[in-house]
Amino acid sequence: xxxxxxxxxxxxxxxxxxxxxxxxxxxxxxxxxxxxxxxxxxxxxxxxxxxxxxxxxxxxxxxxxxxxxxxxxxxxxxxxxxxxxxxxxxxxxxxxxxxxxxxxxxxxxxxxxxxxxxxxxxxxxxxxxxxxxxxxxxxxxxxxxxxxxxxxxxxxxxxxxxxxxxxxxxxxxxxxxxxxxxxxxxxxxxxxxxxxxxxxxxxxxxxxxxxxxxxxxxxxxxxxxxxxxxxxxxxxxxxxxxxxxxxxxxxxxxxxxxxxxxxxxxxxxxxxxxxxxxxxxxxxxxxxxxxxxxxxxxxxxxxxxxxxxxxxxxxxxxxxxxxxxxxxxxxxxxxxxxxxxxxxxxxxxxxxxxxxxxxxxxxxxxxxxxxxxxxxxxxxxxxxxxxxxxxxxxxxxxxxxxxxxxxxxxxxxxxxxxxxxxxxxxxxxxxxxxxxxxxxxxxxxxxxxxxxxxxxxxxxxxxxxxxxxxxxxxxxxxxxxxxxxxxxxxxxxxxxxxxxxxxxxxxxxxxxxxxxxxxxxxxxxxxxxxxxxxxxxxxxxxxxxxxxxxxxxxxxxxxxxxxxxxxxxxxxxxxxxxxxxxxxxxxxxxxxxxxxxxxxxxxxxxxxxxxxxxxxxxxxxxxxxxxxxxxxxxxxxxxxxxxxxxxxxxxxxxxxxxxxxxxxxxxxxxxxxxxxxxxxxxxxxxxxxxxxxxxxxxxxxxxxxxxxxxxxxxxxxxxxxxxxxxxxxxxxxxxxxxxxxxxxxxxxxxxxxxxxxxxxxxxxxxxxxxxxxxxxxxxxxxxxxxxxxxxxxxxxxxxxxxxxxxx
Length: 807
Ligand code: GDP
Ligand code: MG
Description:
The structure is a single chain. This protein is of the alpha/beta class. The strands form 4 sheets. Strands 7-8-6-9-10-12 form a 6-stranded mixed sheet, with helices on both faces. The chain is elongated and about 110 Å long. The chain starts with 10 loop residues before the first strand and ends with a helix. Bound molecules: guanosine-5'-diphosphate (GDP) and magnesium ion. The site of magnesium ion has 4 residues, from helix 4. The site of magnesium ion (MG) has 4 residues, from helix 4.
């Protein structure tokens, strides 16, 4: 009987908890464990919740929850001694037998596609002689049978065959109702081993439900007869569901199957774990949003997990809609759902169920791709044809490099044109404002602070947009998943998984979403390592610095230098990952599925929208952090104003250095050197002198920790004053010879070391915050700060010192 049926004042012993995995876990954490006695303090029919006493404390459960707890009634209501079954007294014996036989009954249900051999399995297990047919639709309703094995009694139910669990056909509805109302202890998902791709689709739906499950890999004889090699053990570990090969016609493997069922039922199977089948980002976000809304509903149905209900709700599943209808906020949730769905459907240009199904097929084909080797020629589907090229052993890698090169080439070369226009516009605005405003601090602030700072960064908007267009396209088209796939072997060499690769490529855009995207990595240590190496993936905010310096110092070899920097970042990431694995995190071998979604040409709209979303973020950053930072930097570089004595001191210093003071604007030099910023820079700059950086570069690196673009705006502010150079573009100003040394501050060698430092040193505040948030500990943020800066300093130091010997 169920706990909800036990009356007030009676007590019962818990036999088992039904329902989905996380519900079972929650109940167990609350003390609802097999064999525990429980007293019903108040169970008024038609009234929710019900009050219970377990151990020594009171708990109230909703009726819907109590109905998922299987119990046996205890003999006398007076004997409410709070003891576990383990302490056996004579009085208990009769009741204990009762408890034990209930506990040793396992209800199992056979679920699978039509014709996969369910009825044959049912017959060979239960000894029944049900009709077995080689055409679908023979089993119209459930057949029940009983089997005893190894001290357990199995109630076996043979359900009608279904291809999925959507609520369309009567068979599907039947199976769904059965799962909901009868709540079998363990599901036997029968799959036809000779037709895995199609059969495993249903498995993905069952995985979503998060119920206890075992897969019978049926028709194993046919698989053996074909030349296919299938590593089902790895696949079981990937999907967290044990698989047992069976030949139900002959009864082979049936005992092993039931042994495994017992293990799963008793919670002893090591393979069992709940995995999420992840969708594309838009859908995953929508699922999370609905899930959150559902979880705040007190009366949510506990037969299914909130994630499952959310997915089904997005698919507009009629049954789930009717289950949820009774919720107090049903209308709001439904409206939320409609809004999300309309948005996603418009974006993808197809109905959402199709998009979700495609993700599931992606999961299946990714899982099989890694565990199954076929000799047969695959059908010439478009996806298969493209895959045979881009994931080819020989060509896969060069194609990837070529695409990356194309991405950086386009970012730099194509981006150059609009960049020139914006640059011209910024210059023009600067001049206009200069001529219109009267001399004084306000004019200086607007021209040098705002236009110099923000303008220096905003010119790179087109480049960033191009970079993002490439990344969005690769993600949306399905290529990124393949790139992860071909990288898998390499990633394993550094102790990671192909799945870590996608956040790494995303890091080229921005490290913050990339670090959040590591949530799809199920292994804790792999995820931590992926997070910690992500800042070495050079983000879009560092691009303006590269573009500025590469454009000024290496215009001939721009693409190569740029690609080289990104490659250096990757190399440092790889070495770091290897070190972390070796020194700190032991290898963990939990394999997981890499989804291989079918290819699709992303709609223009989706790509543009993703690109624009990033562009907007960039602009917001300009108007916010960068603007404020530029103003503060300007203030610090402007004040305090030098006194005449300061100017004289600088003049005599210059004269002492043998510089012709008539070619130098001594007031400007004195002003910057005397400012707060100049003082801070000079204070810190001994640390950076061995790298060849002057105090202006040092200051820009300090301000760059707010947001990397700020390095450019700081240089824009600090390199603005020299009157001879006037409003020339910043790129020209930084390579103009410094009057006090006669040399440009940025020589190619210094510039290169500066680039290396910018690439590697501590990421911006937003990224450090994301690291702390996602890892749940400030230690990882501190590690990033210290380690990354240390690596940056050391590498720049080595390059500068060795380079100085030759230049
Ligand atoms: P159901 O629709 O899932 O109930 O499938 P059935 O049990 O009716 O079986 C469909 C067909 O597959 C029958 O012709 C069975 O004899 C055959 N079959 C079932 N199990 C196996 C197996 O393990 N190996 C082989 N080769 N055939 C099987
Ligand atoms: Mg059948």
